[in-house]
Structures
1.
Amino acid sequence: MKYEFSSRAHTLLSSPLLSIRKETRRGTLISLAEELPAEELFPLSLLSEAASTVISTDASALQYGEPEGYGPLREWLTGDWLRSKGVAVADGGVLLTTGSQQAIDLLSRVYIDPGDHVLVENPTSPGILQALRMQGAVIIPVQGDGDGLLPDHLRRTIRSYRPKMLFAAPSFTNPSGVLWSLARRQEILELCISHNVLIVEDDSYGDLHFQRSEGHPSKRYPTLYALENVSEGGHVLYIGSFSKTVAPALRTGWAAGSRELIGMMAAAKQMADWQSSSLNQRLLHHLLSVSAFDLREHIALLNREYNTRLKLMAELLKRPAWKSSVYDMPSGGMFLWVSLPEGLDAMALLRAALLKGVAFLPGPLCSVSGGSDRIRLNFSHPGRDELLLGMNLMSEAVTEFTARS
């Protein structure tokens, strides 16, 4: 039979992300490509105890649940955790999702029509670009610098395209690791409010916030959602995830915002999967609220270790193979966004690196257009020894590629 897929479905099949992820599943390959936390830091014993307790205590843990998500976990999330970030959510204003990617997908389904203009940071998350392309959006990049999006360019872009939405990650943008300044956050928020543009604020990496040096913590800024401080009819949808801070396989993220937005996304979720795993959400709630696990202490542990791995990667980028490469050291997140030495092409270098047994994410997958001279390197997942070996193999690939060129 000849299958006639929709025209937009081919954007999924043609994505190089599929082949990269397939390659990185090989047991012998070192991946610096994916958005993965460190497995050796998962709270395994406490997760095991939570799973045993939840399943043995209440059979309803294995039953269908509410499309909006497990009520006690929503209450925990909107209580002390989000309030500590200055995020106040009205009743019915939060939806638990299968990771933050599903929150992006659901909103795109209910808010974007084919041909709608949507603004993104450039570079931005590959997952955001995939979701928008699947909906037929016209994606418009907005220029930025080390402090965030450039207000003047955003203003001109809004006037030219009349966009419906802006996707942004002000705290450690994927992949660049940029932390928007407070002034830039306020300017961007005011611009979007004045032009009635919905902001989707992805804070999935916001807790991975490193101390730059001993006794000198890096700066922290309020979220755009907190700055607007409007729980009904606001211009910001705030999304996040436990995948980067607890464990990805729990597949628990959230969207918080106006009840009107959340209600429409919940309706779309019922069509997609009815609910995210009730068992996983109960397990997570037990871990966070009943067990000895302290999420803040765990995040502090992650940040100390990830900061060490980031510094190790930066040291390895000082080797001769990387001469003339450029990058800015982030103060958080999971990635280094590296400008390649002159003459190197990211996609061609990836093919050479895969033959060596190491993978990275090429810049074009993070960009609306261009990016062939950039690569994204993940420093959070590989252990220190694996990171050292992976960067050694990368250096070999760069050296050999340069010699052939």
2.
Amino acid sequence: MSVAPRPHGRALPEAASRRGWCPGLTRPMPTGDGLLARVHPPLGVLTLGQARAVAEGARRFGNGHLDLTARANLQIRGVTEATQASLAAWLSAQGLGDVRADGGPQRLTLTSPLAGRDPEEAIDVPGLARAVEAAGLTIPGLPAKTLVVIEGRVDRATAEADCAVIANAPGRVAITIACGEGRQDLLTCGEREAPDVVAAVLTAFARTGRRRMRDLSEDERATLTEALRTGERPRVAARGGESVWPGQARQPRGGQDLQILAIDAPFGRCTADALDRLADAAVTLGADELRLSPTRGFMLLGPPDVPVAAVREALSVDFIVAADDPRRAIDACTGAPGCASGSTRTLTDAARLAAAFAPLAALGRAAHVSGCAKGCARPGPADLTLVGRDGLYGVVIGGAPADEPAMHLPIEAVLERLGRAKIVGLSAAFAPETTWTDSGRTRRPA
């Protein structure tokens, strides 16, 4: 959401009650546990010195808790009006300060955490991302949530983005924009021309006054495309290729001398002390940086001859290190008491939900535990969505937090019904007219 500039260090109180606010270091967001300050690491990469500085800043100026976001950013919780300016100065000195003061995006691009190190990339992803970031800083009126995804492999499609730049041949890219629930192909061009094309797209988009490109009308999209040179319409390849899962250590194809260890933070949350321990682990593995992942985790890249088993085991205390961990299938926001909008302890309840949800997670199902209908952790649908309200959870099957729940239950009743779901299915387990007895399912009389 684009917002007007405000004096340094003064938070806007109305931000806590609505979704869409994009905090930074100098524009933190009020929450239930103080101010929340977001750190936008350039290209989603932290040097080990920067990582330790973030951890120290969280302890000194916040409450020691950190969030990892789906856009590979970090959030420091529990900041106060008295410490906010000091935190901003502390991290700015480490090269992690805000880059714009007009309410526009502090970080515009999202890339793979392997960007620049994947031998199968057909373009220079980090170089292209830096050029797009620089171009974005010159565009006034760009909404704060604007996102440009840059993907260097021809066998991968893109995550949700306003604009996507995807390699489709060596040195060539396809450029697409969000269009309703789908995407519209614009053109193909050389990777060197891509920053100028993206800048033209974003400039035309900013002039529409819309918050997201997917909300453009047909006429507005036509005006936007007129800002571009005509060219061949691209064919973007479908999703595919290998993925790196938590706990997996492997060497990428192509013979590159590299080992990868991927981990996730449970429900996108960790502590400052855990971040310090992760930096220590990176040193042990011979990695010189932490790469943030859109899965709300990190990747460590190091030489292939360093044993990782002991490091992985040590990190399992604070992080998810196994691909089949059911917590990976569950999104959860901060909830009460950390968020003023939440009435349930979502993080505690999500941890309880994980064990019961494990059989469904193994089948590829996803769940979302949301403290309120804003759905900050996952705005879209999930197989099972729990929406906190007055200490209970509204149960939505196959829908989003804003959808009408089938019923409201305490977490204990949710877990009880979920235990039946692997036998009768989610819809039947949470059917409003169904009750359960020790002997099985009983339907209430009409």
